[in-house]
């Protein structure tokens, strides 16, 4: 049970796009900034574009730019854009299978095991949705020289 | 990003062991109760035994029995027993790689992206730890006939 590494890549790349003033920057240059695979990062950027977090700008001076301010991008937006779904527990309704399933009357309510596991995931998703990339930028900005470094690396 | 189906199997099996009064019950019988693979369920039961949630009783009338009351078994105990770790976001410190890594002074604090993702997972784990299998049993008990069905299936 492991989140795709593309989530880490996407989060840092969105922060970098903000720090240089929005873009557009090519995927090759964005990948080089963190020593990432350009083709794999390009795939993540396409997913971020489909989720309307970045805009793909065509042409020789094109690339990717932020589609909206970091205040309006939550961790959940990014995780969902890359992972597709954030559901990790999948109920296969085993209560309706086997001997127990045969002997039981048809279930009328939701499976209690599933409901409990969903409540816990809900707490996770709520925390992901409550944190914006602007909040993270505030923390990153406490690192000395960070903006100068990102601008130098992406210019 | 998907939790092993063994988590669902383990949760239902622990509830069944409680409903029949604790066990021991063989893994074959426990598997048949929900139409599961006996060899795969046996692997989950061994993991539950290593985590001290069940006790393996040897001998011809042996099997598995609960190691402690459901009040003392949380969802987090079961997920950790089966999944090993509940950490889904893995920071690979890309901030220290590539051009940005080269130009940056050595980091002094934790990565802000990682810290934010960890906070969200913490909320999930806290909710998993706050729910015991006894809480789920209370919900399951509202299903008509459930105890009789489980006892018939496992006797």
Give keywords.
elongated, 155 residues, homodimer, two-stranded antiparallel sheet, mainly alpha, Arc Repressor Mutant, subunit A
Sequence-ordered SSE layout with sheet pairings:
The structure is a homodimer of 155-residue chains.
Chain A: H1 6-19, H2 27-33, H3 38-50, E1 54-57, E2 63-66, H4 75-83, H5 98-103, H6 112-130, H7 133-140, H8 146-153
Antiparallel strand pairs in A: 1-2
Helix pairs in contact in A: 1-3, 1-4, 2-3
How is this structure best described in words?
By secondary structure, the first copy, chain A, is mainly α. In chain A, strands 1-2 form a two-stranded antiparallel ribbon. The first copy, chain A, has a single domain, classed as Winged helix-like DNA-binding domain superfamily/Winged helix DNA-binding domain (Arc Repressor Mutant, subunit A), CATH 1.10.10.10. The radius of gyration of chain A is 20 Å and the shape is elongated. Chain A starts with 5 loop residues before the first helix and ends with a helix. The mean pLDDT of chain A is 93. The first copy, chain A, has helices at 6-19, 27-33, 38-50, 75-83, 98-103, 112-130, 133-140, 146-153, and strands at residues 54-57, 63-66. In chain A, 54% of the residues lie in helices and 5% in strands. At the A-B interface, helix 1, helix 2, helix 5, helix 6 and helix 7 of A face helix 1, helix 2, helix 5, helix 6 and helix 7 of B.
């Amino acid at each position: 049970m492991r989140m795709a590494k593309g989530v880490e890549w996407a989060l840092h790349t969105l922060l970098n796009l903000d720090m240089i003033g929005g873009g557009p920057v090519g995927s090759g240059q964005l990948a080089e900034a963190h020593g990432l695979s350009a083709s794999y990062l390009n795939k993540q950027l396409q997913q971020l574009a489909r989720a309307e977090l970045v805009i793909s700008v065509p042409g020789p001076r094109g690339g990717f730019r932020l589609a909206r301010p970091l205040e309006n991008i939550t961790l959940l937006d990014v995780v969902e854009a890359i992972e597709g779904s954030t559901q990790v527990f999948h109920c296969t309704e085993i209560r309706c299978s086997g001997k127990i399933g045969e002997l039981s009357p048809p279930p009328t309510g939701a499976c209690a095991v599933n409901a409990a596991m969903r409540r816990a995931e809900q707490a996770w998703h709520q925390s992901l949705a409550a944190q914006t990339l602007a909040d993270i930028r505030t923390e990153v900005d406490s690192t000395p020289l960070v903006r100068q470094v990102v601008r130098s690396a992406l210019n």
